[in-house]
Amino acid sequence: MRRIILIGYMGSGKTTIGKALSKETGMMFYDLDWYIETRMRKTVPQIFAERGEEAFRKMEYNMLHEVAEFEDVIISCGGGTPCFFDNMEYLNQQGDVVYLNASPDVLYKHLLMAKGERPLLKGKSPEELIEYITTHLKEREPFYSKAKYSLDVNLMDNYDKINISVQKIRELLKL
């Protein structure tokens, strides 16, 4: 029985790497945000808009406790998941937590293309976005750094580099 849990800031590649790792290992992949959306029949942005961040975080906490009980899974958490309640401690108890670590500049480039889809980034100018990412990442780093493993994902801009990241995770976790 194995649980691999991917954490990191939004845009760090948790879903991309999780899917690729799932394909290689045959383990089921669950993206926590997708799981919430499927269960609630609403998108994360809709939930944020209708209920606010606090209600979303409570819902996320409950759904995390469901998914993290599954066996032989790879779980991609939302960027904020480790930073609320006792989630980080819980995650470390449940499985092998890997922090996908990327610089603010790399995250900015990834998020710039998809900022309309992210409730916390909506309406920000490019300058506001880089400032927000830098500040927010510093706030979240103490939580992320509690992961059992860390992987630098700054150079993950094509399929070959994604596969290299997947191989590095397999080496880290002896898969």
Distance between the termini: 12 Å
Instruction: Give the neighbour order of strands across the main sheet.
Output: 2-3-1-4-5
Tell me the overall shape.
globular
In total, the number of strands is 5
Which bin fits the share of residues in helices? 40-55%
* Element order: H for helix, E for strand: EHEHHEHEHHEH
Q: Whole-number radius of gyration?
A: 15 Å
Question: Mean pLDDT score, rounded?
Answer: 92
Largest sheet: 5 strands, parallel
- Contiguous helical run count: 7
Kindly name the structural category.
alpha/beta
Contiguous uncertain segments of 5+ residues: none
Proportion of residues in extended strands? 5-15%
Textual characterization of the structure:
By secondary structure, this protein is α/β, with parallel strands linked by helices. The protein is built from 7 helices and 5 strands; from the N terminus they run E-H-E-H-H-E-H-E-H-H-E-H. A 5-stranded parallel β-sheet has the order 2-3-1-4-5, with helices on both faces. The longest helix has 24 residues, at 44-67. The mean pLDDT is 92.
